[in-house]
Design brief:
single chain, alpha+beta
Length: 867
């Protein structure tokens, strides 16, 4: 019989090529893994979450201006406990002498308010400023030197320098990875049918993970959140794929040798895994549409991880199954997974009660979920595990309060306007202090740096000769081409202290002004302080006003005050000409974008998943029912969060809601697919019982690993965002497992009629295949051709003579086919020939087509054997 090429044969040929070229594939993967070990060090990690803010937000624009025009020196709040005030003053001098420290502030002993702000309950607070930018590693070294100098005391530190939190996070995730490995091994030992499957699965996972670690360099840089959890989520999200292929191989191995079993298993697993993968990718793809660009970063990193896992399963794992096939055969054991027939029987009894109850719970969960308390910074989030740095920071804030600082960037040049704004800000009860060049006091007669003085006023302030000062003013006027001031009345010429001092210092450095050593030393000290202040407070086109709030970092009160602050600043500067920047404004911008991102991700995830399910089930009703169940699990997940009252980082919510829909719906797909198949062979009540028995091992394996990974992450990490991801994934997966095992079966039984009425079919062109046979011919199928004459009919019977006909081949099912074709191209056309479903009984043959629309031919050769 001649065979024409068609769709199903293509997957068989591809699978055979992969299995037979396994040694070449091993070599390619070996080279790729070696490359990945080097390229993983090329991945740049961004530790600043504000870099992912939208370019349109005020915070992002203001941060860009600050980065370009201002210097932000490293700072630290260092608290020493159990110390008397006099000793605290001595330690301040020790800290000042530490290399890298430019300033130490512990308040003024003469001011009761200052003393109260820096000394409470036998504890002193030092505000330390370092000599370098806060991003400079030298600041971290200087902070370590300060800690060493205070080594004999009880010290707690809250600092903006160093990467201690990032280092702690990396250590924590390494522990999580180890725990995840143990969880996976224990689950596989319990749910596998052969111990030899475990090394195959482990090698597949590890290879995919290493390759993913090495490929992320193509993105230039990734966020610290993505870098911390992508490889753990990669295992949790894609473990299903390897398990599906492994189970397929085990089933096929019972009736074929290792090579044939592997080929057939892979050809059958490719469509199944691809369909499952598409739902996961759909949820991750929705993340990439977030306005907050960290969603785009996480989406692309996780999509890359899932795709690499699929490629590894499709290409590397078949070769590993062949390599370990002997061990797999020798180490088979009885299944430890129990039957769950009681769940199916319970579903049959409660099919009329559970769905209405679920709808009620769904409504309540949706209502509570809408009230989930979101955090847009880390200040409100409490993790189950705290790092040493977090505990120290909490100790500082518990004693001396939080430090909430804002920067107001206004157009440079008008010091008088800046001064008026600063004075008005200082009078607000929500503001502890407001500082800018326009209110930096000199400590002399109440003057500030930007005050404009005449020659006589400057001479009185500095106790210098009036004639010398007049010459200095005249030189300044000449350099600035204000010649009228030289000819006219110089005594009425006013210049800001800041500008005149810088001019005088430059003339001193050039040798035009001679000063005594003591005065020269004072000038140099003051010059250093002024240039540092200008580097921090005055840029090329903007001035920076630094405000210290006595409000929490986020919350309705803080956000309302930000609105008032904008309104107040608009009295002095046009809207759009100034920026307000800080942690509170960042949280405010994130809160503003969250509502849009939340709706967008929810809609896109559901739309993408529905599209995949429509083509999977060819029914409108089935996708709606499945999505209803998983959406219910999402609402119940975050409804529980609302009831607990614990804040969750908004990004954690967005990530988990998309992952839970995309990944956990696989469990519902497994049960729905099995039920659809089995109810064609048995009564729906019996089918649902058998469905749960067959699907339970898959759901248990994948679900327990996913939930275990989430719980491990939540229990180990001290990062608020990652903690939220872990606890929500763990809880959400457990809820999803419960719903697909308890609620979904009752919905499938009750909604059968809806599913059937909304189903549709995709009709493919019929394929026809020419077949020839002679001798005693058994016909059982549709044949169009010549049988001792012309015939176009469905024939059931036996014919003496010859057959030259065209056989119709269906494409929907390969497994239940009656079409049989020989492995050899040429056959002897004599003996007994069978056309019909029973032709599949011939040995050494594969099956394609449909039983009810395919005529199948078998024949006996001269030796009485079927071929």
């Amino acid at each position: 019989m001649k065979e024409e090429k068609n769709g199903p044969d293509f997957l068989l040929k591809v699978s055979a090529w992969i299995v037979d070229r396994r040694n070449l594939i091993f070599l390619v993967y070996g080279a790729a893994v070696i490359f990945a070990f080097f390229s993983r060090n090329w991945v740049s990690v961004n530790n600043d979450i504000t870099d992912y803010l939208s370019e349109e937000t005020e915070t992002k624009q203001g941060l860009t201006v600050m980065e370009e025009q201002f210097t932000t020196f490293g700072t630290a709040r260092v608290m020493v406990s159990n110390i008397i005030y006099e000793k605290a003053c001595d330690l301040a001098e020790v800290i000042k002498e530490t290399d890298g420290v430019s300033a130490v502030d512990m308040g003024s002993a003469d001011s009761a308010q200052d003393r109260e702000a820096h000394y409470r309950e036998c504890a002193v607070l030092y505000d330390i400023t370092f000599e370098w930018k806060e991003t400079d590693e030298a600041c971290a070294d200087a902070l370590e030197a300060v800690k060493e100098a205070l080594g004999d005391y009880d010290v707690s530190v809250s600092a903006s320098v160093g990467n201690e939190d990032i280092k702690n996070m990396q250590d924590e995730m390494s522990v999580v990875m180890g725990i995840t490995a143990v969880i996976i091994l224990l689950v596989l030992l319990f749910t596998s049918k052969s111990y030899g499957e475990i090394p195959v699965l482990v090698l597949t996972f590890v290879t995919a993970m290493v390759l993913d670690m090495g490929i992320n360099f193509i993105y230039g840089e990734i966020s610290f959140i993505s870098n911390s959890i992508y490889y753990v989520l990669q295992l949790a999200l894609s473990i299903d794929y390897a398990i599906i292929l492994c189970h397929r191989f085990g089933s096929e191995r019972e009736k074929a040798d290792a090579r044939e079993a592997c080929i057939v298993a892979l050809s059958k697993a490719i469509p199944e895994i691809s369909s499952s993968c598409m739902t996961t990718l759909s949820g991750l793809l929705a993340l990439m549409f977030m306005e907050f660009k960290i969603g785009f970063d996480m989406g692309r990193v996780l999509i890359t991880a899932v795709i690499l896992s699929i490629i590894t399963v499709f290409t590397l794992m078949p070769g590993l199954l062949m390599l370990f096939s002997g061990l797999i055969d020798r180490t088979r054991h009885r299944s430890f997974v129990p039957k769950v027939s009681f769940l199916g029987k319970m579903a049959v009894k409660l099919r009329f009660a559970v769905p209405p109850l679920f709808v009620c719970v769904l409504a309540v969960s949706g209502w509570y979920s809408a009230k989930c308390p979101y955090a847009y910074g880390y200040s409100l989030i409490q993790t189950s595990n705290e790092s040493s740095a977090s505990m120290q920071e909490r100790a500082v804030t518990a004693r001396f309060g939080t430090q909430n600082t804002l920067a107001v960037l206004v157009p440079v040049g008008d010091y008088e306007k800046e001064g008026r704004l600063l004075r008005e800000l200082s009078q607000l009860e929500e503001i502890d202090s407001a500082m800018g060049l326009a209110n930096v006091e000199l400590g002399i007669d109440g003057y500030v740096l930007t005050d404009r003085l005449t020659p006589r006023q400057f001479a009185e302030m500095t106790d210098m000769d009036i004639e010398t000062i007049r010459l200095l003013y005249a030189a300044y006027a000449a350099e600035h081409e204000e010649y009228g001031r030289i000819i006219g009345d110089t005594d009425n010429y006013s210049i800001s202290i800041l500008e005149l001092f810088l001019f005088a210092y430059d003339r001193m450095e050039e040798g035009f002004v001679q000063l005594e050593d003591e005065m020269r030393g004072e000038m140099e000290d003051m010059h250093g302080q002024i240039t540092d202040a200008m580097a921090q407070l005055q840029g090329e086109t903007y001035s920076r006003l630094v405000i210290s709030l006595n409000l929490p970092e986020e919350g309705s009160e803080t956000f309302a005050f930000l609105e008032r602050l904008h309104t107040l600043t608009e009295r002095y500067y046009d809207r759009g000409s100034f920026y307000i920047v800080g942690n509170s404004t960042s949280d405010f911008d994130l809160a503003a974008s969250f509502e849009t991102d939340n709706v967008l991700i929810s809609i896109l995830t559901i739309v993408f998943v529905i599209i995949v399910l429509l083509f999977t089930f060819k029914s409108v009703g089935m996708p709606v029912l499945l999505i209803l169940v998983i959406q219910g699990s999402i609402w119940m997940n975050f409804g529980a969060q609302a009831i607990s009252g614990d804040y969750i980082f908004f990004l954690s919510y967005l990530i988990v809601s998309s992952i839970q829909m995309g990944a956990n719906i696989d469990y519902a797909i497994v049960i729905a697919s099995r039920y659809q198949e089995l109810k064609q062979e048995m009564h729906p009540k019996e089918a649902i019982v058998e469905t749960l028995n067959q699907a339970f091992p898959t759901v248990l394996t994948s679900g327990s690993i996913m939930a275990g990974v989430g719980i491990a992450i939540s229990g180990m990490t001290s990062d608020g965002a990652i903690y939220g991801v872990g606890v929500s994934i763990g809880r959400g997966t457990l809820i999803s497992i419960f719903l697909v095992l308890i609620v979904l079966p009752t919905i499938l039984l009750l909604g059968d009629s809806v599913i059937e009425r909304t189903s549709f079919d995709i009709r493919y062109p019929e394929l026809w295949q020419t077949s020839e046979a002679e001798g005693r011919v058994h016909l059982d199928g549709w044949v169009r051709g010549e049988i001792s004459g012309k015939l176009n009919a469905e024939v059931h019977g036996v014919l003496e003579g010859s057959v030259n006909g065209i056989v119709r081949i269906g494409q929907d099912s390969r497994e239940e086919s009656g079409m049989v074709f020989a492995e050899e191209e040429s056959r002897e056309k004599s003996g007994m020939v069978h056309i019909g479903e029973k032709g599949r009984e011939a040995g050494g043959m594969d099956h394609i087509g449909e039983a009810d629309s395919t005529a199948c031919i078998t024949e006996e050769n001269g030796n009485g054997k079927e071929t």
